[in-house]
Design a protein that fits this description.
3 domains; 5 helices; alpha+beta; Dna Ligase, domain 1; about 260 residues; 6-stranded antiparallel β-barrel; about 30% strand; Thrombin, subunit H
């Protein structure tokens, strides 16, 4: 594995640094078990505690369960999941139906490659369906990602330059911390209001009545905010949940309202 590392502190991506410098940052607790790190060979940013190579640098006091450890690495520096090595059954792909058939946009998912392949064969999606994989900066046409080659041998559709440049709002992304557990999930939000939202995320361990903490990024970093809410419904097939906000702060209210107004 590479000896050059990157790490996230606050909203900044820092690096490359040698592993010895990384070790010093763990030693003085500048970084902790829940700090995000990346090095060549990783599909995505990982928490330090999940990297075996760094286990000797962590101590029992590293990492907490507050929302500061759930910060999303800055967009543009964050590697997209490696689609070439993505397993057939891993449900992490969100799709947006609407533009591909002249209707209003609606988000669905997350789906696996195997599920997308079936949907394509049944003409429920096509090359102009928008897709989002964690780490992407924005939605992309399915035909312009390597997912297309994995689900079909068809010739991709011709996409006009005006279509490629069309304005598409970035996904409303939430990173989720469940109770005091350390594992962080990422989901795409829909049906957004100042009262609550739905989060599309596979196999998130919740049930109705549970409290969930979120670090939300309406524009993948712009006007991000933290919020807490209660689960009111788990979606069919454990593909996400509906959440009602609790005591939403002014910053969160403003960010959500601005996002809603842009859609009008």
């Amino acid at each position: 594995m590479s000896s050059s590392w990157y790490y996230v502190r606050g909203n900044d991506r820092i690096g490359p640094v040698e592993e010895s410098e990384l070790a010093s940052l763990f030693a003085d607790q500048t970084l902790g078990a829940d700090s995000y790190v990346w090095t060549k060979g990783f599909d995505n940013w990982q928490k330090a505690k999940a990297v075996e190579q760094l286990s000797s640098y962590l101590n029992s006091e590293s990492g907490t369960a507050d929302m500061s450890s759930v910060a999303t690495p800055p967009q543009g520096d964050r590697p997209v999941l490696d689609i070439a090595s993505l397993s057939e059954e891993r449900a992490c792909i969100t799709i947006k139906i609407g533009y591909d058939r002249g209707a209003d946009d609606v988000e669905y998912g997350p789906y696996s490659i195997a599920q997308l392949r079936r949907a394509y064969k049944e003409n429920r999606i096509n090359g102009k369906t928008f897709v989002y994989v964690p780490g992407m900066e924005n939605w992309k046409f399915l035909a312009e990602t390597s997912l297309f080659d994995r689900i079909t041998s068809d010739m991709p559709p011709v996409i006009d330059e005006s279509e490629r440049r069309m304005h598409t709002r970035k996904p409303f992304v939430a990173r989720l911390l469940f109770h005091d557990k350390q594992e962080v999930y990422e989901g795409v939000c829909r049906d957004i209001s100042t009262g609550g939202l739905q989060v599309l995320v596979a196999n998130f361990p919740c049930k109705a009545g549970d409290e969930v903490k979120l670090n939300v990024h309406p524009d993948n970093g712009a006007q991000s905010f933290t919020a807490t809410g209660k689960v009111v419904r788990v979606l069919e097939g454990s593909q996400g949940f509906s959440l009602r906000f609790q005591a939403l702060g002014d910053k969160a209210m403003s960010a959500i309202q601005e996002y809603i107004d842009q859609a009008r």
